[in-house]
Amino acid sequence: MVYNIFMAQFSFDVESTYDSGEMINVYDQSQRELSNRYDLKGTHTSLEWLEDKKGLKICGDVQFHLDAVIDILRKKAATRGVSQKTFDVTNEPETTNLRMIWLVPFKNGLKQEDSKKITKLLKEKLPKIKTQIQGDSIRVMSPKKDQLQEAMQLLKTQNFDFPLSFTNFR
User: Are 99 and 66 a contacting pair, CB within 8 Å?
Assistant: First the structure.
């Protein structure tokens, strides 16, 4: 008689997302602090949403004002548990009519080359773990939960330039 034994597969997904509810809270708290900051009173410094709330538009008179706003955002994000890497500050501020405008979109979703970096790292360091790229997320599978926890710890110690979150732990 042949017995068909299936090993239980445990898995989790690696994603690069942010909590939109927390980001709204970060925005609201930053707005409140902007209105109370003495060094920004009487300036044209402002903070607005980009379309569909997928980023922020920071306006100011000089670079100091823009830096002050992004500093406020980062502090509020840290207290709310939102990764600093969520803010894509690679764009240069534009100067128009003696005002500076800085568009700061949010990083959301893993790019293909980032997914490949993660899967390559996991295969090198933890060869018993299986990975599968699924669009803008990566499914990590193993018959042992301990190996999955090792994979999470390994990814947390890496210094990627995008935020990582772990979901669907089964």
Answer: no
pLDDT attached to residue 8: 57
- The pair of three-digit structure tokens given for residue 10, joined into one six-digit string: 């445990």
In a domain, 5, yes or no: no
Q: Which two tokens stand for residue 82?
A: 């939102």
Q: Please check whether residues 41 and 81 belong to one and the same domain.
A: yes
- As a whole number of angstroms, the distance between CA 26 and CA 20 comes to 10
pTM of the entire predicted model:
0.78
**Number of domains observed in the structure of the chain:** 2
Nearest to 23 by CA among 64, 65, 52, 60: 52
- Around Cβ 126, how many Cβ atoms within 10 Å? 17
In angstroms, the CA 119 to CA 148 distance is 13
